[in-house]
Amino acid sequence: MDVTYDDNSITISGLAHFDLKQCLGCGQAFRWKETNGGYASALFGCEIIARQDGGTLTLAGVNQTDGTALLRYFDLERDYGAVKASYAHDVYLSEGMQYAGGIRVLRQPVFETLISFIISANNNVKRITGIVDKLCTAFGQRVDTLCDFPTAQALAAASEADVRACGAGYRAKYIVEASQMAAAGFDFDALAGMPYEAARQALTALPGVGLKVADCVCLYALGFVQAFPMDTWMQKVLCGVYGYAGKTDKQMRAFVDEKFGENAGLAQQYLFHYARTGGADCRGDQ
DNA sequence: TTCCAGGGTCCTA
DNA sequence: TAGGACCATGGA
Q1: Long-range CB contacts (< 8 A, 24+ apart) of A161-166?
Q2: Gap between the Cα atoms of A66 and A109, Å rounded
Q3: Cα gap A128→A175, rounded to integer Å
Q4: How far apart are CA A231 and CA A237, in angstroms?
Q5: A281 falls in which pLDDT band (50, 70, 90)?
Q6: A33: annotated active-site residue
Q7: Residues 21-80 of chain A: which lie with beta carbon within 7 Å of strand C?
Q8: How far is the CA of A113 from the C1' of C4 (A)?
Q9: How far is the CA of A102 from the C1' of B3 (A)?
Q10: Across the strands, what pairs with A51?
């Protein structure tokens, strides 16, 4: 991988196991809009345009500091070839990795990830994307033609009715209360330095956050790649494909640890996207 | 009309 | 600790 910086852009060449469309369209991020041959989002206070041409990714609208953050955002320094090789023995997962082998698990801003996945409760990707977009328009800072994700302070000061008007439904109460805790000093920075289980438990102190949403924050924001968010799709896959029928969280963790090991979260993202969009029967034929 | 979607909370047994 | 009702909403 080779990285070069220009005045307001960064170019990363020599990329393998990376597909921009798959990364942004596999249900882990809700704030990138397809634009002229690329994708645009307001991130780190900039309007960023991302484009991929083969093994080269160009990120326009950034400075060198943002560029460093964006390498981390797209998880470009992890050896996904080695991760995928370690799962080559698994038939269904191999199909998933073949189906969308360019997925990388993003490392997104913590507060944005928290609120996005509070919204995800009993919801679907399309609606989550719409609600997040309305929250950004209503409460986010404008950055050129787009709006950034709202700050904790902005959402903490919002009324439940105004958040509900963005389509959040009964989750509006959780969004406002979690934002108020964040604005009051909930220590997100400390979480990344904790052991995974401790960070996961700490997150459940926030309203609207159970173990599944906590796992999403651990995986998509804090870099705990062993986190394995257990949603309805993963229940179908684990029951139908892997014959898993445990019910408690402890049983699930033990099964996932044994089956997928230290990179379980990366495996989960391939499985989730394949089960949800790949057209394969995940209810049991392996 | 009913079911489902990247679930969480609260109450009861 | 487990099970179940309830919570908004829109697309299939």
Answers
A1: A162/A138, A163/A135, A165/A138, A166/A131, A166/A134, A166/A135, A166/A138
A2: 13
A3: 13
A4: 10
A5: confident
A6: no
A7: none
A8: 29
A9: 33
A10: A58
Task: Give CA–CA dist A84/A270, Å, rounded.
Answer: 10
Report residue A28 as tokens. 């882990």
Name the residue closest to the C1' of B7 by its CA.
A121
Residue at token pair 């309305």:
A134
Which chain A residues in 105-124 sit with Cβ < 7 A of strand C? 122-124
Which nucleotides of strand B come closer than 7 angstroms to any CB of the protein?
A: 4-9
Q: Which residues contact A39 (CB under 8 A, 6 or more apart)?
A: A20, A21, A24, A32, A33, A49, A50, A51
Output the six-digit token pair for A252: 């699930």
Q: The whole model's pTM is what?
A: 0.97
Q: How many residues does this entry show for chain A?
A: 286
Provide the CA A280 to C1' B1 distance, Å, integer: 28
Question: Is the C-beta of residue A170 closer than 7 Å to nucleic acid chain C?
Answer: yes
| Whole-angstrom distance, CA of residue A118 vs CA of residue A217 | 10
Angstrom distance, A262 CA to B5 C1': 28
Residue nearest to nucleotide C1 (CA to C1'): A248
Strand runs labelled E in A61-210: 142-143, 146-147
Give pLDDT tens digits for A226-272: 999 999 999 999 999 999 877 788 888 899 999 999 999 999 999 99
Q: A22-80: per-residue pLDDT in tens? A: 999 999 999 999 998 899 999 999 999 999 999 999 999 998 777 889 999 999 999 99
Nearest-10 crossing angle of helices A110-119, A211-220: 140
